[in-house]
Design a protein that fits this description.
heterodimer; A: mainly alpha; 2 strands; 1% strand; B: alpha/beta; Rossmann fold; six-stranded parallel beta sheet; six-stranded mixed beta sheet; 12 strands
Chain lengths: 330, 341
């Protein structure tokens, strides 16, 4: 934190090195810029205002979930239930809105209940992983099945529609600016605030070395639980976006997002082992996945190959990130 | 009466032909498929591509862009957004959810894009459904079974995935038919998740539990599994069961003279939807607006039925095709034109 201001005239190679050290997401940012350029090259309209709005609408949920995952990964943990929390919150808020009518006040109430649900799920994860000391990867896999089961109990079939007022707002415009842009700005402010909190720093400290953190007097269990709680809250926010974009409840909607959220965190330059990373990187990672998916289509990949090319492209992005990062820091 | 119909159709076609040959038309159509778990889906896309190709003869240049991958609902919404960015004229989609596409279809419509769902109905008022009525599909099999059993006997049903919209509609279809036949008793209903092996297992259990079954109502690929169990139990002569439409089964059916009948959900539905889409893009209007179904936006296609009377014909269509190839049918361009003013 002390090296915020770089020396006035550094030697160029060490300046690059320092920049990459200080901003671990720089390789990801470079990849993102390249991908944006490629998207624009193959389909100029994808970079129009409408195209960008669509992209943000589609991937805002993944960005939020990647951030959720980041806080857990900071501390060297992992959350395989993040997608299941999205599904659960989705059916809870749609269910509450359908039950209570769906005017402005009930929508706000439903969102509050959704946030509380996400927080509760996060705390459950925190208890089983940090307090009961079960292995994070297995324990959250188990809670993911539990949360999915709960979602299926609340709404066995996909389909209950969300109130029109809700998704028209999410998909609409205020003062000619698409609503999702306001959401994105709020999201950015929230991240800036959170970066400055003690919790993110402490999570990183725990991820760097649990033993050392404990010996230096940090409440390790509480910090890890805090990470999971934060993860639950952000998963709930991701669920709000999904609900705004799909206008309906689906007990399985978030399931496939879990591994994408982890991939986004790693693409963004954070270390899965913990102790090193940024939320900005995770947001960029989520965008990389989004731009790869659309690029696969815009370059005209035959349909039989689309899944395969997507997988290879993500792998390449991962490798490029690692190589660029390593070269620059060396 | 009939003659005048034909005449007007011919005149309409001639008119259409003359206008398009004067102004060569170009349409770009996006096809989205969100699940790649079966050959049926692959065949659906191949047939739609072939249908687009066939428009060339009419002087209409239809290019298709395909997005087909295993995706979740947000992933398929991304498909639609990509199509909007690519500036397509129409989107034809086999949707992963009945309700989740309302907002993105509204956006597509705003961008002036025609949206047609096929194979599974959608709730969006901004889209049209062109495909079969799953309820009528279920009812057709049940009617054949009731007829074959002379309106009496013990029947079991093997269903797909509980809670899946298409499954629920099919189940409602057979229930309605069997309710009209008081002497047909549905003794048990099980779910085998549209899985051939699970269908076989379920049938084995049912045969062990109810030795006096006369009829089986079973859907799609599960029928091949169920029939395997029936044949293993040596009950081929005493049981009538619905069948399915893949070549492997049709061959077995012909060889062992099974007492079977199959409702057809043809993979050609997307090709039919494409032909309807092109005509709509040409600015033509439907004779009868598409207002059928629970969402009031459906245009139902005829459901072919295979039984002993036309089994040979079906087998002939599939000759030389691979074993997983499904019996198919689609609206030809002329068939589709006849639906328009």
């Amino acid at each position: 934190m002390a090296s915020i201001e770089a020396p006035a005239r550094p030697r160029s190679s060490s300046a690059v090195k320092r920049a990459f050290e200080r901003y671990p997401f720089l390789p990801a940012l470079i990849i993102l810029v390249v991908l944006i350029a490629l998207n624009g090259w193959f389909q100029p309209r994808s970079l129009s205002l409408a195209g960008m709005t669509g992209l943000i609408k589609t991937y805002l949920a993944l960005m939020l979930l990647a951030v959720a995952q980041t806080y857990v990964i900071y501390a060297g943990d992992i959350d395989l239930s993040a997608g299941a929390i999205v599904s659960l919150v989705n059916v809870v808020i749609v269910g509450v809105m359908a039950q209570w009518g769906g005017d402005g006040a009930t929508i706000v109430a439903a969102l509050a209940i959704g946030l509380a649900t996400g927080l509760a799920c996060g705390i459950v994860n925190g208890i089983v992983v940090a307090a009961l000391r079960l292995q994070a990867i297995v324990a959250t896999f188990a809670t993911s099945i539990f949360f999915t089961g709960l979602a299926l109990y609340i709404q066995p079939v996909a389909g209950t529609p969300a109130p029109t007022a809700f998704w028209r707002t999410y998909g609409g415009r205020i003062l000619e600016i698409p609503f999702v842009f306001y959401v994105a700005v709020l999201f950015a402010i929230l991240l800036v605030v959170l970066v400055r909190t003690r919790l993110s720093l402490r999570l990183l400290a725990v991820g760097d070395g649990q033993q050392e953190a404990y010996q230096s007097g940090l409440p390790v269990t509480a910090i890890r639980m805090g990470g999971y709680a934060l993860c639950g809250v952000f998963a709930a926010l991701a669920a709000f976006c999904i609900t705004g974009d799909t206008a309906s409840g689906d007990p399985l909607v978030g399931g496939k997002m879990t591994l994408f959220s982890i991939a986004a965190v790693v693409l963004g330059g954070s270390a899965l082992a913990g102790g090193y990373g940024t939320v900005v990187g995770s947001v960029i990672g989520a965008l990389i996945i989004g731009f790869i998916n659309s690029l696969v289509f815009f370059v005209g990949t035959p349909s039989e190959w689309q899944n395969l090319v997507q997988g290879v492209a993500i792998l390449l992005a991962l490798m490029a990130g690692v190589l660029v990062g390593r070269r620059a820091r060396a | 009466m009939k003659k005048s119909h034909i005449l007007s159709a011919v005149a309409g076609a001639a008119l259409a032909f003359s206008t398009v040959s004067a102004f060569a038309q170009d349409f770009k159509i996006g096809l989205s498929n969100g699940w790649v778990g079966s050959e049926w889906r692959t065949q659906m896309i191949d047939e739609a591509k072939a249908a687009a190709e066939a428009w060339k003869e009419k002087g209409v240049n239809v290019t298709v862009e395909v997005q087909s991958a295993n995706v979740d609902v947000p992933g398929q919404i991304a498909h639609v957004r990509n199509f909007i960015s690519a500036g397509v004229d129409a989107i034809i989609i086999n949707p992963n959810s009945p309700t989740a596409f309302d907002p993105v279809f509204a956006q597509a419509k705003e961008a002036g894009i025609l949206v047609i769902a096929t194979d599974a109905e959608v709730s969006s008022p901004d889209a049209l459904y062109v495909g079969i009525d799953q309820k009528a599909w279920g009812a057709a099999g049940a009617e054949w079974l009731a007829r074959t059993l002379d309106g009496k006997g013990n029947v079991v049903a093997i269903n797909g995935v509980a809670g899946h919209p298409a499954n629920e509609m099919r189940v409602a279809g057979y229930k309605e038919v069997f309710a009209q036949h008081p002497d047909i008793k549905v003794v048990n209903e099980v779910n085998a998740n549209w899985d051939q092996a699970q269908g076989q297992q379920a049938m084995q259990n049912l045969l062990a539990t109810y030795p006096d079954i006369n009829g089986v109502w079973v859907q799609d690929g599960m029928a091949a599994g169920a029939w395997k169990s029936i044949m293993d139990a040596g009950k081929t002569d005493s049981i009538a069961a619905t069948g399915e439409i893949r070549k492997d089964f049709i061959d077995l059916w012909t060889k062992d003279k099974l007492n079977s009948g199959a409702s057809v959900n043809p993979p050609g539905v997307m090709a039919s939807a494409l032909n309807v889409a092109v005509l709509m893009l040409q600015g033509k209007e439907l004779k009868e607006p598409a207002e059928a179904g629970q969402y009031k936006n459906a245009m139902y296609l005829p459901i072919p039925f295979i039984d002993s009377s036309n089994l040979e014909e079906a087998a002939k269509q599939l000759e030389g095709k691979p074993g997983y190839y499904s019996y198919t049918s689609a609206l030809s361009i002329e068939d589709a034109e006849a639906l328009f003013k």
